[in-house]
Amino acid sequence: MSATGRFAPSPSGDLHIGNLRTALLAWLFARSTGRAFLIRLEDLDRARPGAAERQLEDLRALGLDWDGDPVRQTGRRALYDTAIDRLVADGRTFECFCTRREILEAPSAPHRPPGAYPGTCRELSEAERATRRAERTPAIRLRADVEAWTVQDLLHGEVTADVDDFVLRRGDGVPAYNLAVVVDDDEQGVDQVVRGDDLLTSAPRQAHLADLLGLDIPKYAHVPLALNAAGQRLAKRDGAVTYRELTERGVDVFATIAESLGLPGSTPRQLLDSFDPATLPRAPWTFKPPT
Ligand code: GLU
User: Fold this and answer.
1) What is the pTM of this model?
2) Ligand 1 centroid from CA 201, angstroms
């Protein structure tokens, strides 16, 4: 497949109407440009039994279709391990023994951005590493040799964000999201990444990693999130927000999303006629759950 878009939910529970809106946008971006559209279930972490199946049912109920069977990241561990092994062999990584707490409490180095990995384990000697390995299994971090990276985003233009020594494989052996997403998008032929703009500042590190692995960098479009009435990111605790909860209360979920996008039509295909990224609402969408 040469041109492909995707939606990549984490099956940690039911999708809420903001997630469904992002899914519809990813479908519209892909289909309006003649791309294939894939679903990838990002179940390496926080997956709940049955959640993936429910998410797929809700996406189908919304009228979305996709090409091929959805893939699950848990079935693709060998791909992630191969990429990590390559980076390790190329000297692009280091073992990190820090706990979350140690990282939070470490003084941040003056030339590193706030919140960035403080570099504690970067220069450990082989002897120190051997001692620490007996205590705990290390995480593998990227030995970043840039401080920032720039990507092009269809909605945000040029976006530059910090790149730090981010985790590639966690101490419990699970490949990190930033690594898996890059490997998967390449392996699945994805050249268009449409997702919520909470991930906008992750795109530069992912693009940098793709570059290090010699992979093509996809086109990005980070779309505005849904907010609750208090202006915070919409969440399950905000009330009736899932497809099923809203439908039970008589809300037409598709119509609500289409209206929020200013697009006329009652099926995804009908929205394609008037879909134009240039006229998409750029502000977050405030959703007030029915009471
Ligand atoms: N699985 C991520 C999420 O649900 C999305 C990852 C992506 O689209 O790159 O937030």
Assistant:
1) 0.96
2) 13
